[in-house]
Specification:
This is GGDEF domain-containing protein. It comes from Actinophytocola xinjiangensis. By secondary structure, the protein is α/β, with parallel strands linked by helices. The protein contains 12 helices and 11 strands. The protein has an 8-stranded mixed β-barrel with strand order 3-4-6-7-8-9-10-11, surrounded by 6 helices. It has a two-stranded antiparallel sheet with strand order 1-2. Bound molecules: ligand C2E and magnesium ion (3 copies).
Length: about 280
């Protein structure tokens, strides 16, 4: 215990908490130079159609190859990047990288005659309030020659639900360009269903936490009933449903039975380098 300012106020000195705070600040401060040096990279995870396992698209997931701490997942740094605003240039870089990659897949599909996978990119709430977003997206698509319909932007439920005014205008402009919007981690936030009806949205992604509880021997578990309700809600609103975090065949079968359209998860593939999507395109 230490006396803070000579008055009757005391602060608890917790060395572990202190170390975590220092690590946070260190990471946060290192991010701009890391972006300059090219320490961030993107992995891609297939999104497949449940009925036949066909490749529909891929989600871009950012990682940081930190010179000292090794590979860091987005849960370690996206929140920090949102706090400092670095998410704006970092998010723009992810978007440009992923769209360039998707344009390459489109060219590959044109050569081989296969279907062209779409690309899903996560968008932070902070990016949606940035005035330059719509122009950035438009410019990136033109620069790499990717049709807007091949791009899906994912916003979490909490990011999209509070959206009004200019950011909502930006969302409508993105949709006017021909881009698709998905609500990520659906079911974990506080959705205003009346409001959802009026949002320009094309797909719901059911959070992995609901998928986790699906079992073949418990067809009417609470999780199964929640997923059934979410699928029904989505279809009523004419939205596609993607299930996240599908790890077992059992879960995939349950999801198919519950009417879910598509899925993503370790059962099909972990996030990996872009070449793995090329292999998927050639094999399936
Ligand atoms: P998300 O968008 O919901 O992405 C799905 C997460 O589930 C990813 O975690 C993915 O690796 C993980 N996952 C995929 N299949 C399975 C599975 O079968 N089981 C389990 N347990 N997990 C699975 P990841 O890559 O750690 O990303 C975490 C979150 O970070 C993402 O959640 C997204 O919200 C955020 N994120 C990732 N990349 C970006 C980005 O470029 N920009 C922004 N703003 N956020 C990003
Ligand atoms: Mg996502
Ligand atoms: Mg998600
Ligand atoms: Mg998530």
């Amino acid at each position: 215990w230490a006396k803070v300012d000579g008055k009757n106020r005391w602060a608890c000195y917790d060395p572990e908490r202190n170390a975590r705070e220092i690590a946070r600040i260190t990471l946060s401060a290192a991010m701009p130079a890391a972006l300059e040096r090219g320490e961030f990279y993107v992995e891609y995870q297939p999104i497949v159609r449940l009925s036949d396992g066909a490749l529909l698209g891929a989600e871009a997931l950012v990682r940081w190859a930190h010179p000292e701490f090794g590979r860091l997942g987005p849960d370690r740094f996206i929140g920090l990047a949102e706090e400092t605003g670095l998410i704006v240039p970092l998010g723009r870089w992810v978007l440009a990288t992923a769209c360039a990659q998707a344009a390459e897949w489109a060219a590959h599909a044109a050569r081989t005659g296969g279907p062209q996978p779409s690309i899903s990119v996560n968008l932070a709430a902070r990016q949606l309030v940035e005035p330059g977003l719509v122009d950035d997206v438009d410019q990136i698509l033109r620069a790499v020659g990717l049709p807007p319909a091949s791009l899906q932007l994912e916003l979490t439920e909490s990011a999209i639900m509070g959206t009004t005014g200019e950011p909502l205008g930006a969302l409508h402009k993105l949709v006017d360009l021909g881009i698709r919007i998905a609500i990520d981690d659906f079911g974990t936030g506080y959705s205003n269903l009346a409001y959802l009806r009026h949002l320009p949205v094309h797909a719901l992604k059911i959070a992995g936490s609901f998928v986790e509880g699906l079992r073949a021997d418990e067809p009417d578990s609470v999780d199964a009933q929640i997923v059934r309700a979410l699928v029904s809600l989505a279809h009523t609103l004419k939205l596609d449903v993607v299930a996240e975090g599908v790890e077992t065949r059992d879960q995939a079968d349950r999801l198919t039975a519950l009417g879910c359209d598509s899925a993503q998860g370790w059962l099909y593939a972990k996030p990996g380098p872009p070449e793995e999507i090329n292999r998927w395109m050639d094999q399936h």
